[in-house]
Amino acid sequence: MKKTLLIFYTIIIYAITELSWWAYLLVKAKPSSMAMIMCEGSVFIVIFFVGALSLHKSLKRQMKLQEQKRNFLLSVTHELKSPLASIKILLQTIQKRDLSKEQVLDFIGKSLTDIERLDDMVENMLLASKIDNSSYTFPKDKFNLSVLVDSIVNRLQITKCEGSQQIIDAEIEPKIEITGDKFALTSVVTNLIENAIKYSGPCQTVGVKLFLKEGKVYLEVADSGIGIADNEKGKIFDKFYRVGSEETRNTKGTGLGLYIVKEVLEKHKASIKVKDNRPVGSIFEVVFE
Questions:
Q1: Is 110 within 8 Å of 90 (Cβ atoms)?
Q2: For residue 172, which of 192, 146, 145 has the smallest C-alpha distance?
Q3: What is the mean pLDDT of residues 170-175?
Q4: Looking at the DSSP assignment, which residues form a beta bridge with residue 167?
């Protein structure tokens, strides 16, 4: 793509040089036509530059898309390999060693956790694809959002603080009901909480709040991570967008989570905004009208 841009710039410079040379020759041959030549030349230059600028932007978008796809493939490869390798080691240990029943159950539990992680990633990819193809209709029914959020918190909850594990502190107001697509909103809540866990440090608390206020339903997910710069807050919901390089980034992910969150919430006429947490971190605030 860089080679294409180099050729593009070369053609632009050549075209401007040729135009200037022919304009000079025409004016030299017919000095009385200088005004007409300048007028027509100006119109041509304006049209030429508008077209060149449009093509330049198109090439830049294509370069950005190629880079995003490359990063996406790298991140998906990493996201697949890590839990698969973990599951393989756990199952091989069960197969080759004489373990107690408690150890076997512990290894199976860890394997199931990794399988759920893979399942979440596959669901994200399928939902993102359906959203892009406009093939998903978002069927809406009335359901208990409090129960949904509570079940997701319990599934993602970490009770022991070891290594890079976090604790989820949930404040869920009971019996909050909304009308929406339960499957898609499950993905929204899961992505927001998992995102907060990923960007929080070891043993740092992730806060989840669900409450009613002035007739509106609020869902807040807070982390104590590195925070999000103001110039990044408008970009983090773009498809595949992730801060930094895939080779040097420490956090896992495919760049689809927040994109899905935004798209699903727009279909539910709900809003989401990012606020700075104090003293550190970010708060994602979802409001259902």
A1: yes
A2: 146
A3: 94
A4: 205
Handedness of CA 76, 81, 82, 88 (dihedral sign): positive
Residues 182 and 117 in one domain: no
* Residue-wise pLDDT tens digits, 77-111: 767 788 888 899 999 999 998 889 899 998 998 89
Distance CA 32, CA 34 (A): 6
Question: What's the CA gap between 279 and 223, in Å, rounded?
Answer: 11
Whether 86 is in a domain gets the answer: yes
The parent domain of residue 87 ranges over 75-132
Classify residue 74 as exposed, middle or buried by CB count within 10 Å of its CB (0-12, 13-18, 19+).
middle
CB atoms within 10 A of CB 158: 15
